[in-house]
Design goal:
Layout (H helix, E strand, L loop, with lengths): L19 H25 L2 H5 L16 E2 L1 E3 L32 H6 L4 E2 L4 E2 L4 E9 L4 H12 L3 E2 L1 E3 L2 E2 L1 E7 L6 E7 L1 E2 L1 E3 L4 E3 L2 E10 L6 E11 L61 E11 L9 H4 L4 H40 L7 H8 L17 H27 L9 H12 L1 H14 L5 H29 L8 H28 L25 H8 L1 H19 L7 H28 L6 H9 L1 H16 L5 H39 L5
Parallel strand pairs: 14-16
Antiparallel strand pairs: 1-4, 2-3, 2-7, 5-16, 6-11, 7-8, 9-10, 12-13, 14-15
């Protein structure tokens, strides 16, 4: 960003002619360098390099034979309701004698993760078969209805072993190469339903993959797979059930368990047969029925190394679409770069050369000389730096946009470097919140500089609005949605302590940093304008329909949206379909292309407006790129109706509220980029001509 006050244009610039070709050449060279860097990053980002990349954040843990491996449970999640459920609260699952919550960071809490210990007893490299976890007393009608609603909403159980999430393994075949590869479907369904009945997955078979050190005989966990099953266990009812030494008759029949492993929440996993043919019946969900939960443990040696154990979770089978996204964005960038290069090299060079040569030509008719000189965009030189209407609001939005830009840029730098590993649950959201808070000093500085540039005396008012505007909108939306989620008894509701922590981050750190930055920015002298501003504003002539405000603004937002809409699909999939997004290198490239695209489209339309003798470029340059947020929100609505299966009211309100907030922030970010680009552009072109 070019910040006003960091560099000022000297008055001596008015008395000398600047070479317009040097500006054009420098601009064109910069575009070429950016494209070369992007292509170089693309060439380096090969599949092998990505697979060999080490994900930092978690230290490996070595296990000896018979070491106890802690299995933890996390919140239940659903793609239909998007309301996480606590594993133990109000659900008839096996509970340990003492429930202990694991250490959580702020991002985990806001995501709805609630991690606890479990009753599962797993010893390293010790296989178990049909081990009883617990027996649930006959279900009450209330428990049955709650569990029925959970299964109908397709909730999935999430477990963690050595920081690896449990997943159902699926074998796939590449249609082009014919090679087999494995993918993971995280979690497993609580149960499934047929046309007539609902069944509970009360038996799970864990397959734990481990990598062995041949020298020390120590092992590391590199995979955690599960096969959920539904088995109606039988035992001798004449004797009291003993969980310590259970004797289940169904365990002798479980030799054919592989034939009915369930990997779907809606399709029956096996054909139900009656009689003594070796098949067992599934566990129905019926009031008054008792449920016995059991599990198997199978350890399997693997060649996968610990540093690569997340590769299967992070594998993307649609990498060509990501490359198409980059190619699409680069084509838009090259198209706009060509337009800007034409304007800079041909049009502006010709205009600046003509304007500067007119001073040296002696004409008999002075009036004719003046009329010949005052044409095109130079005609509005006395008004182009006039402060816009609602200048304070514009300074607030630009400051907030600078804060969002700083947060996004630094966040992606850390993500590309690998510091935001998915192994660190909630690290991305935690880093986002902390960076936004710390970037308050940047937002305050930019807002203060433009308050001084726009000759606003009430800079404290601008500072307060900068500190409260965007965070305030986000806080109101989050608090209202938190009440709705709390009313649904979901674990996604932030507890009171978390709300206090967020308030402290906002008012205890962010607001003081915004004030400090604004004080530093407003304390400096205002950036000196290349030309004087007339006391009386000139009248703006009628504008052609194609560059009028509404039409130009709507058209200007199409190209920035077009540069990101393909990658936006994967971001929404990660947010709402529980997929892991870790292609931050591609995202960083798309973000860089978005910034250049916003700058170029804003400069092009700003030049057209100045040539039409319309000097009101400040707000227009902001809204030209900010209008892309409208297309982002419309695309999110399209994504909701096409790709999601949300039918309930509260999840729908959550979706559109959060997507509205995301679109609002995206508009502030892109609008700030467009405004800053036009600010630099206007200062350069008017500083390059000689004004008497």
């Amino acid at each position: 960003f070019y910040l006003p006050g960091l560099s000022s244009t000297s008055r001596a610039m008015k008395s000398r002619k600047l070479s317009s070709s040097s500006y054009a050449s420098s601009f064109f060279s910069s575009i070429v360098v950016i494209v070369i860097i992007i292509l170089a990053i693309c060439c380096c980002s090969t599949t092998n390099f990505a697979n060999a990349f080490y994900l930092p954040g978690v230290a490996p843990q070595d296990f000896e034979r018979d070491d106890l491996v802690n299995l933890k449970v996390n919140s239940l999640t659903s793609m239909k309701s998007h309301l996480p459920r606590d594993y133990y609260t109000d659900l008839p699952f096996c509970k340990p004698n003492v429930i202990m919550s694991s250490a959580e960071n702020l991002g985990e809490v806001l995501r709805g993760d609630r991690i606890y210990n479990s009753k599962y007893q797993i010893q390293m490299r010790t296989d178990e078969s049909c081990k009883v976890l617990c027996k649930i007393d006959p279900l009450s009608s209330e428990d049955t209805e709650r569990l029925k609603a959970i299964i109908e909403d397709e909730y999935r159980v999430n477990m963690i072993l050595d920081n690896l999430p449990v997943a159902i393994a699926k074998e796939n075949v590449d249609s082009q190469t014919g090679e087999e590869y494995k993918t993971y479907d995280r979690g497993f369904p609580v149960g499934y339903q047929t046309d007539d009945d609902i069944f509970v997955n009360n038996h799970v078979r864990f397959t734990i993959l481990f990598h062995k050190d041949l020298e020390t005989d120590l092992v590391r966990v590199v995979g955690f797979e599960v096969e959920p099953m539904s088995i109606k266990h039988e035992y001798d009812t004449r004797k009291e059930f003993n969980e310590a030494y259970p004797r289940l008759e169904t365990c002798t029949k479980q030799q054919g368990a592989e034939d009915f492993s369930s990997s779907s929440a809606t399709v029956s996993p096996f054909e139900i047969k009656n009689g003594n043919d070796g098949m067992v019946s599934p566990q129905p969900l019926v009031a008054g029925e008792e449920i016995i939960f059991t599990y198997d443990v199978k350890f399997k040696m693997s060649d996968i190394r610990w540093a690569s154990r997340w590769d299967t979770y992070l594998s993307m089978q649609d990498q060509q679409i990501h490359w198409f996204s980059i190619v699409n964005s680069v084509m838009i960038l090259l198209f706009l770069s060509g337009m800007v290069a034409v304007i800079m090299i041909r049009t502006l060079r010709r205009d600046i050369t003509n304007y500067n040569q007119l001073d040296q030509i002696l004409l008999d008719d002075a009036a004719m000389s003046q009329d010949a000189e005052e044409t095109g965009w130079k005609l509005v030189h006395g008004d182009v730096f006039r402060p816009p209407k609602m200048a304070g609001t514009l300074a607030v939005y630009v400051g907030s946009g600078a804060q969002l830009f700083g947060m996004s840029f630094v966040l992606m730098i850390f993500a590309v470097a690998g510091f935001l590993s998915p192994a660190n649950r909630g690290s991305l959201m935690t880093a986002m919140l902390l960076l936004f808070v710390l970037m308050g000093i940047v937002g305050g500085y930019v807002a203060g500089r433009f308050a001084k540039t726009f000759q606003i005396l009430a800079w404290k008012s601008v500072t307060i609005r900068t500190a409260l505007m965007f965070p305030g909108v986000a806080a109101v939306i989050f608090f209202c949605l938190n009440l709705l989620v709390w009313g649904q008894r979901s674990s996604g509701a932030a507890p009171f302590g978390t709300l206090l922590a967020l308030v402290f981050l906002w008012f205890g750190i962010s607001v003081p940093l915004v004030f400090a930055g604004s004080y530093l920015g407003y304390k400096k002298d205002a950036a000196e304008s290349p030309v004087r501003t007339n006391k009386i504003p000139r009248q703006v002539p009628p504008q052609p329909w194609f560059i009028r405000h509404n039409f130009a603004v709507l058209v200007g937002g199409i190209l920035p949206f077009g540069a990101v809409f393909i990658e936006l699909f994967f971001i929404l999939t990660s947010m709402w379909l529980n997929q892991v997004y870790y292609i931050f290198g591609v995202l960083f490239i798309v973000f860089a292309i978005l910034c250049v695209t916003c700058a170029e489209i804003a400069i092009v339309l700003c030049y057209f407006h100045l040539c039409a003798e319309d000097y009101r470029w400040q707000w227009r340059s902001f809204f030209t790129c900010a209008s892309s947020s409208l297309y982002v929100f419309l695309y999110s609505a399209y994504y909701f109706y096409i790709n999601l299966d949300i039918e309930k009211t509260v999840p729908s309100i959550m979706y559109f509220s959060y997507m509205g907030l995301l679109s609002y922030g995206f508009g502030i970010l892109t609008g700030t980029i467009g405004f800053m680009a036009c600010y630099v552009f206007v200062r350069v072109i008017y500083g390059a001509v000689k004004i008497d």
